[in-house]
Q: What sequence folds into this?
């Protein structure tokens, strides 16, 4: 049974890898390589990006980063994470902003800038294409696992 | 105006009944339907409110979810306060992450709980939103609405009632009342007819009016016919009554036992004449009124036995001193419709006729002047003697010198002499003798059973009396007549009347002839005649 399931999973994964390969690579969430957090749940990612708990599980403050220049990537990210369009996300933030406490993520121009920001900021968290992952960052969440 | 007033005063009048029925029906329907409407409206309103609470939740759902997600108490407070401002919401509260945010202090009665879904993760509940509906307000609003509806219903019912009554009044009741009143006033025979109400030419009411008019026509015809018939009967009855009442003859209707049922004035008159009081009964066939009732009863019985009308002439029972009353009686048996038998008796007074008849008989047999038998009367008496074969002597007297007296002193004097002679004869005759005037100055005597001697004696006496002078007052003069007498015996001289008369006549003639020679001899018997002299008849 186990073997069969494994096989299925492998075939499925193979299929998925193939697809991603063709378009581009999947988005992943990365943190500073020295960040003690090694893995995050989806809920934790949502809470970080939607302003609920802007902190890592160990309690250290987190700085989520949005990509500013590539709307396509940003759209893809929010769609994947909370199933919302950018407009809705923006509406959400415009509402939340007045209540005071929560703040939308900081923005970096592109993946390059993001990688630079994450390399420089120990409590930063950002999403980039898996293909862009460098040794300076650590992947804490993958969408398709 | 007053006629309608009367219509409205009359509780059983059509319009009032109709108004009452429609009024009550519409009030009842209005009441029931408004009750039903009220309940329905109320329930509907409550349901709508529930829905509107849902809608409210949907409106503030996103904000509430955000507040719950971010555990933003201020935002949550804003949400619940916002909800509470709605008039259908009494209170609202939010629960999330052990936090409770309440709008006010009102208690939660029949609260509606909405789960707050996570904005970002499906199927994840992150808290609850509790809304206490303002039941009082909802009910009040529902009641108000229901009340308005009910009012509208009642108003509608009222309007419908008015319309129904109006329509019924103008279309049905008023024409019907008009028809009814006209019909009420209509007297068959006056020729009045109902008029078809406007707009009802082709309706049932119009038909009714036409039918009633036809009926009136027929009734009137019948009335006229019956009236005419009645008039005829009345006229006839009047005539009959007139006949009956004015009849000179008494008409009496009696029962067979004799009880009088009906009588007319003439009957009362005859009773008065008989000096009798009106009684209930005078016996069968009024027998008590008759002198010889057995004759009447016998005659009627005989006639009825032969199925004939009984008629007869009978004498009524009268007082001794009053004149006799004779009536012709007609008795008819009448059987009426219920098979009871009556006798109709008609009495015709024939007394006068009877009297006349008697007087006629008298005139026929008597001489007017001398009041003695005339020749016919004498002949009858001679017949009677002959029939009985009774012997008698027939004496024939002829006056002497009578013609001369008659010529000199006139007929009146002659008549006086004749009356004088007759008077002598009456005084001379015996009880069973008869005497009469044979004609002119001739007289005849019938001497019952007389022989020659008796006859001679009687005749001599008579002649002496006759021969005495008679004083004529008018002429102041004494006159005297004599008499020549012939006599014949029955049956000795003959059995034939004419023979006897002839013999007496011849004997008398001889005396008359010998008057001048033998004036003393005034009587000669038939048997004294020479047989040669006798002229046989």
A:
């Amino acid at each position: 049974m186990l073997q069969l399931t494994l096989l299925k999973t492998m075939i499925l994964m193979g299929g998925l890898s193939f697809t991603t390969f063709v378009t581009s690579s999947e988005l992943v969430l990365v943190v500073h390589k020295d960040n003690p957090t090694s893995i995050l749940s989806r809920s934790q990612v949502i809470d970080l990006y939607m302003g609920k708990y802007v902190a890592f599980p160990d309690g250290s403050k987190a700085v989520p980063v949005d990509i500013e220049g590539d709307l396509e990537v940003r759209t893809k990210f929010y769609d994947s994470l909370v199933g919302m369009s950018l407009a809705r996300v923006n509406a959400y933030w415009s509402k939340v902003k007045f209540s005071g406490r929560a703040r939308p993520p900081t923005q970096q121009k592109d993946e390059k800038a993001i990688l630079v920001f994450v390399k420089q900021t120990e409590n930063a968290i950002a999403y980039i294409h898996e293909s862009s992952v460098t040794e300076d960052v650590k992947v804490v969440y993958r969408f398709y696992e | 105006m007053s006629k309608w007033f009367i219509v409205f005063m009359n509780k059983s009048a059509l319009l009032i009944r109709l108004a009452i029925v429609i009024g009550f029906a519409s009030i009842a329907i209005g009441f029931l339907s408004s009750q039903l409407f009220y309940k329905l409206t109320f329930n509907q309103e409550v349901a709508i409110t529930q829905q509107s609470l849902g809608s409210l939740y949907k409106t503030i759902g996103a904000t509430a979810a955000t507040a719950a997600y971010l555990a933003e108490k201020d935002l949550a407070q804003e949400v619940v306060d916002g909800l509470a401002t709605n008039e259908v919401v009494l209170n609202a509260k939010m629960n999330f992450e052990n936090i409770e945010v309440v709008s006010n202090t009102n208690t939660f009665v029949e609260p509606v709980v909405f789960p707050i879904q996570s904005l970002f993760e499906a199927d994840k509940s992150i808290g609850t939103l509790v809304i206490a509906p303002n039941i009082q307000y909802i009910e009040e609003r529902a009641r108000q609405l229901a009340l308005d509806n009910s009012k509208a219903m009642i108003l509608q019912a009222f309007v419908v009632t008015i319309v129904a009554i109006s329509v019924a009044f103008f279309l049905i009741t008023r024409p019907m009342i008009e028809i009814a009143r006209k019909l009420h006033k209509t007297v068959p025979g006056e020729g009045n007819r109902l008029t078809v109400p406007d707009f009802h030419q082709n309706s049932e009411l119009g038909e009714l009016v036409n039918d009633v008019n036809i009926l009136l026509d027929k009734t009137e015809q019948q009335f006229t016919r019956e009236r005419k018939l009645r008039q005829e009967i009345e006229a006839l009855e009047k005539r009959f009554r007139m006949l009956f009442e004015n009849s000179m003859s008494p008409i009496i209707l009696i029962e067979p036992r004799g009880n009088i049922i009906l009588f007319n004035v003439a009957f009362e008159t005859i009773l008065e004449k008989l000096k009798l009081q009106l009684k209930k009964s005078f016996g069968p066939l009024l027998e008590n009124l008759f002198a010889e009732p057995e004759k009447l009863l016998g005659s009627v019985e005989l006639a009825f036995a032969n199925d004939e009308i009984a008629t007869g002439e009978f004498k009524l029972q009268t007082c001794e001193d009053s004149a006799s009353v004779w009536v012709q009686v007609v008795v008819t048996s009448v059987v009426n419709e219920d098979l009871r038998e009556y006798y109709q008796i008609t009495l015709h007074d024939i007394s006068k006729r009877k009297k006349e008849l008697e007087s006629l008989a008298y005139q026929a047999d008597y001489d007017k002047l001398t009041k003695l038998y005339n020749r016919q009367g004498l002949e009858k008496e001679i017949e009677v003697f002959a029939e009985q074969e009774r012997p008698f002597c027939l004496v024939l007297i002829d006056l002497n010198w009578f013609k001369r007296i008659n010529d000199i002193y006139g007929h009146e004097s002659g008549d006086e002499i004749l009356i004088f002679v007759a008077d002598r004869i009456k005084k001379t005759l015996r009880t069973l003798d008869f005497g009469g005037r044979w004609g002119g100055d001739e007289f005849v005597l019938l001497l019952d059973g007389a022989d020659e001697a008796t006859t001679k004696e009687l005749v001599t006496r008579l002649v002496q009396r006759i021969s005495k002078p008679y004083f004529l007052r008018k002429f102041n003069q004494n006159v005297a007549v004599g008499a020549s007498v012939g006599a014949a015996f029955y049956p000795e001289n003959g059995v034939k009347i004419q023979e006897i008369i002839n013999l007496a006549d011849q004997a008398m003639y001889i005396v008359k002839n010998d008057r001048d020679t033998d004036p003393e001899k005034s009587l000669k018997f038939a048997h004294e005649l020479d047989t040669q002299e006798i002229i046989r008849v």
Chain A has five helices and five strands.
